[in-house]
């Protein structure tokens, strides 16, 4: 089978042969699939790429797992040269990424891994499905029935998310600190918290860029880059010039245009790391699935940056006749705040961020997300400035560590101040500006060398250190895996140990607003909202409905199980309620 003669079997043919000889035999005691090779090939053949776009999620997963099993059997008897031939000739034009630490054996393990194939097959099916929708003009147009992304891809995305959330909920972790009780959580809590925090962090980062620009008297422009007409599969206006290109190719053309603009700035002596310009860009999608970019750029007005950008875009659009000349002010728009009523540059760009990154309950945002993911694009990115997102997130852990060294602890508490701090937003924004300009360079990660599951050498950030501190703070390896039974037991124990007493102060009872006493909803929200928000919108509504019928002056809310549940969450997440309405002891 592995002969070097001209008639030798090629790797793809080898896979097709092996694929038909692989049979699924069930699951082992740990729930892992069992495949075995038979001498009698089945009638099932490796499907074509055009077929898999109609597969369900379960069928795509089964295909990926069977391909991985076929490669395990194919690579088992192979020598080094034979493995290289197989690795370089994968089906569906899939390429395996090679790093400097990759070896033939590690790459062979990678293409034998069912999780790796699952990612590749799902990504390939989504991209091909959307490309077929573009070719068939199923998206956008003058009378659109589907916009941005096909309904089938949206449905499959939601099914995957449900399964992923279920899996994350079953993955329980515990953090044991010497100075406090063990803290139990599951990975779904972490994922939900990350999704909620992402928009807040982005807004603060963009606002910090705006403040840095104001301090340096920089100008601001809002650039919209669109792909050429041949990339638009079903335009609502204008002539149809679609060439059959995919959305991935359209986004790659936009990347190339953006690099040309940056090269033009390099050519006039403005280096992209000089700090003379910086900003943020976000990908949005037309109704027909073709991407376009929105870019907010802050720039030194003493240099000819704006002129160089306009000249570069005009050259890029030279094949579009008078398009740039007729739409110059829409393509490169100057943003100036002339009065209190004028939108700031940060709010201007953040409107597009919200549209692109809203939650799963927003249909438009979900369609953007699925379309952008299918084309393999990065949805948003900063440029020209070191935001050091990894360091910012590491400092969030440091802020909760009572034993952290003085300098890094101070910086962490500035970036992530307590929830009850007066003028918290302004304080946090000021700290972030200093962090971008100077403080991030004072921090460094300490990395440990290890190996991934393919045997490749990797370096993982294990701790972070401030240049003025002698010691570092550990940020990795703090969690331990625990079973569902252990997690439930610890949570019950934690709930039993928490004693909650609400002390309504006379000031809180008698407080007036617009001539009316403080309503039950407002009192409940001051006590419970900070915690209930961690439990999601449905928990907030349920606990509110229960508490709304109770009088706060009777002391009854702290007896209701839903309110107790919210307050227990408050203790668990170590969040402090608004002190003006009462205390928790």
Structure overview:
The protein is an alpha+beta fold and 585 residues long. The protein contains 21 helices and 17 strands. The strands form 6 sheets. Strands 8-5-7-6-9 form a 5-stranded antiparallel beta sheet, with helices on both faces. Helix 9 (247-267) packs across helix 10 and helix 19 (520-532) packs antiparallel against helix 20. The radius of gyration is 28 Å and the shape is globular.
Write the layout of secondary structure elements.
Elements: H1 11-21, E1 22-27, E2 33-37, H2 49-52, H3 57-75, H4 80-87, H5 104-110, H6 114-135, H7 151-170, E3 172-175, E4 183-186, H8 187-215, E5 219-226, H9 247-267, E6 277-285, E7 291-299, H10 305-316, H11 323-331, E8 332-334, H12 345-357, H13 363-374, E9 380-383, H14 389-399, H15 406-415, H16 424-437, E10 443-451, E11 457-466, E12 473-474, E13 479-482, H17 484-497, E14 502-503, H18 506-510, E15 512-513, E16 516-517, H19 520-532, H20 537-548, H21 561-572, E17 583-584
Antiparallel strand pairs: 1-2, 3-4, 3-13, 5-7, 5-8, 6-7, 6-9, 10-11, 11-12, 14-17, 15-16
Helix pairs in contact: 1-3, 3-6, 4-5, 7-8, 8-12, 8-16, 9-10, 12-13, 14-15, 19-20, 19-21
